[in-house]
Amino acid sequence: MKLVGSLxxxxxxxxxxxxxxKGIAYELIEDNAxxxxxxxxxxxxxxxxxxxxxxxxxSIYDSMVITEYVDGLGATQLLPRDPQARxxxxxxxxxxxxxxxxxxxxFLERKRDxxxxxxxxxxxxxxxxxxSLATVARGVAARKDAALTLGDIACGCALFWYEFRLPDVRWxxxxxxxxxxxxxxxxxxxxxxxxxx
Length: 197
Prior knowledge:
The protein folds into 2 domains: 2-71, Glutaredoxin, CATH 3.40.30; 83-187, Glutathione S-transferase Yfyf (Class Pi), Chain A, domain 2 (Up-down Bundle), CATH 1.20.1050.10. Helices cover 55% and strands 7% of the residues. The protein has helices at 10-22, 40-43, 63-71, 83-109, 119-142, 150-165, 175-185, 188-192; strands at 2-5, 27-30, 51-53, 59-61. A 4-stranded mixed beta sheet has the order 2-1-3-4. Strand 3 and strand 4 (59-61) form a beta hairpin.
């Protein structure tokens, strides 16, 4: 298998963490969909990362589709078989992806000329971030089970991306989130996929 993507993408990191947790070998093809000479459209016509190239040459894309596929490989699974538990795990992954989406939207809007930036759009995205962070914090505080979930991976990758790209989102000020994140950072899968400084 080959994974196409950027080392700074939280969506790519989510897949890389899952692959590491499952001990699945893959080749990383580093590419940035924003570069003029990107090869990403060869693997995903939407020109988005990640894309996973299977051994037969077929590509699958969108990080949630890839995680569904990868989780089915090997014995250990992070997505439960029970329908309700599975729906909750997928919901939490969607929450992490939504955190990523809102952060990326702000990051891209801030790259525009200051006069063209839409303050209302940024505020709307920031509201999503704040509400989502509060939801993650409540979930972390209420947990009785410390087993890693796909939702943990997605939300963790989003939070760590904020430190890299949007440090003004000071989520570590929340003690529950900070303690939970430190536990994630201590895992080899997160340590090996840290965003380069």
